[in-house]
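Researcher: We're teaching a course module on how sequence relates to structure. For the next exercise, students receive a sequence and then see the predicted structure as tokens, so they can try to spot secondary structure elements on their own. Here is the exercise chain.
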Amino acid sequence: MFSRANVLVHTTEAGVEVDAPDTGLSFVDDVDVTAMPSREGITHYRIDEARAMHRMGRSGEAAVTLRAAAQRATHYVHAYPMARELVGDMVRRGVPSQAVAPSGLVRRRERMS
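Model: And here is the predicted structure for the students to work with:
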């Protein structure tokens, strides 16, 4: 089902991919993502939101957002390649003030590798 919200949340992913994460996120400012009917769609958006935040230097917020997504749909987040790549990048770079936030994600990522 492609509603306005569903289409707009994909702009976040597009923004990350073209190295304009702030622009991608700006399209979603007035969208109630939680009203989307698909749990997968909401989780996919949260992963892309976390990727955008990380690219914008907001890694602590990215870790918190990714953990929240994992609480909603654990297997989806842990199996999704973009989320796994984000966790790996956060581990390599470190996550200031939230260093422990991605730890559960890292342990799960290591078990799945």
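Model: If you want an answer key for the exercise: The first helix runs from residue 4 to 17. The CA atoms of residues 15 and 24 lie 4 Å apart.
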